[in-house]
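Show me a record, fold above all:
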Amino acid sequence: MKTQELFNILEQNQGKSLCFEYAPNLMVGTNYHITEVKHIAVESVDCGANADSWNETIIQLWESPSEIEKTNYMSVYKALGILKKVGKMKSYRLDAEVKFEYSNETFHTAQLFVNDYEIQGTNLIFKLAVEKTDCKAKETCGIPEDKLTMEPTNACCSPSSGCC
């Protein structure tokens, strides 16, 4: 999901509570806060020596241990106010992919993609998911598509394969 799409959804649902499902049927606690918004410019080189660049908006969610008994989720209206304040200080790249950074005692810190969202009664729920890593230079590295479903081996790229 792009940052602009996130803002559009939030604008259209300001009267709702903002919820996040970080894994199937597992919700970020009602005691979460938006603790940081990162505007990231990524410049990369893949294993096939291809340069790439893109932008990301990363919104960090943190569960406050002192508010563990809290029963209501943050309102979309409040979250939108926080995000707009950030935008006045540091402009958003509205075409940037948006991710949510989150962890808890049983879930490792991860930057989660927004797979979907849904409205359930008075709740706006963003469904988050971990994106698996991938080789962007499969053709250069000589990795046939049928190899992608096989179990990994201890083999490594040969010096003449085109991989790093």
